[in-house]
Design goal:
This protein is an alpha/beta fold. The protein is 24% helix and 28% strand. Helix 3 crosses helix 4. It is elongated.
């Protein structure tokens, strides 16, 4: 099969022929039809911690090509998506049927492969952030970078939970932000974010999700929080939150729900 593989420290990755893996007991061989691209991909490549050689990528959508012994939830030919630790920038990958750190689920019929491949890391990160911040009905919730990958999911989920969402993004993304569910939009390229938040919420907001990863901005925005409330910066998300599972009720069309996916009101 063809794959983007890193063989030496400092390599960007090479597209080349490598052996097609075979599934062991409890594993699935997936023919990949779409792969998601996330910052964690290049961070893993550049960290120097991965065992060489390795295939880049972790988010995927595809079709079950072969099942190992004792696999009971999936059949050959079924469309699935999820997170793999065997690499997703490839024609095939291996996933384990039941592993919460690398979940896999069936793709609803009304969701395309590209959409499904874009969901896992960004969607689960957004959900973990909302859970950690306790965002719910009536929460005043500030999201910096509201139209990015994680931000877009966080805004939708928060809006579905009944939160009052304040979102920052470039002025050209104002319409997109409001479509996603932002109630109050702040264009960071046209106004001072901290001043705008202070003017609208003199007593401070309940929660902040900082996806811009700017220490100075985070410090300024953090001063806008109500006492005892929380600011969450993306790099601070603990690994165990990736185990979180979720369902359609959180406002995004296709999500993990105990390793099943809800679509069209059906499992």
């Amino acid at each position: 099969m063809k794959a983007v593989i890193v063989e030496h420290r400092g390599d960007a990755g090479t597209y080349k022929e490598v052996p097609t893996p075979r599934p062991a007991a409890g594993e699935l061989l997936i023919r990949i039809t779409a792969a998601g691209v996330n910052p964690v991909d290049w961070k893993s490549r550049d960290s120097g911690k991965e065992r060489l050689p390795f295939i880049l990528g972790q988010d995927f959508a595809g079709v079950v090509s072969e099942t190992g012994a004792r696999v009971t939830k999936y059949r050959e030919g079924e469309r699935v998506f999820g997170i793999t630790d065997h690499g997703a920038y490839a024609q095939y990958t291996i996933v384990t049927e039941d592993e919460r750190n690398h979940p896999v689920a069936k793709i609803p019929d009304d969701v395309g492969d590209a959409d499904a491949a874009a969901l896992p890391t960004a969607g689960l990160t957004a959900l973990a952030s909302l859970e950690a911040l306790g965002v719910g009905k009536g929460t005043s919730f500030l999201v910096t970078g509201a139209t990015g990958g994680v931000g877009g999911y966080a805004v939708q989920m928060a809006a579905a939970r009944g939160a009052r969402v304040i979102g920052t993004a470039r002025s050209s993304n104002a319409d997109l932000a409001r479509t996603l569910g932002v109630d109050e939009f702040i264009a960071y390229d046209r106004e001072n974010v901290a001043q705008a938040v202070r003017a609208a919420y003199p007593g401070g907001v309940d929660a902040v999700l900082d996806l811009v990863d700017d220490a100075e901005v985070a410090q300024i925005i953090g001063s806008q929080l109500q006492p005892s409330r929380r600011l969450f910066r993306l790099p601070s998300i603990r690994p165990e939150y990736r185990r979180t599972t979720f369902g359609r009720g959180d406002g995004v069309r296709a999500m993990f729900q105990h390793h099943d996916v809800v679509g069209n009101g059906q499992r």
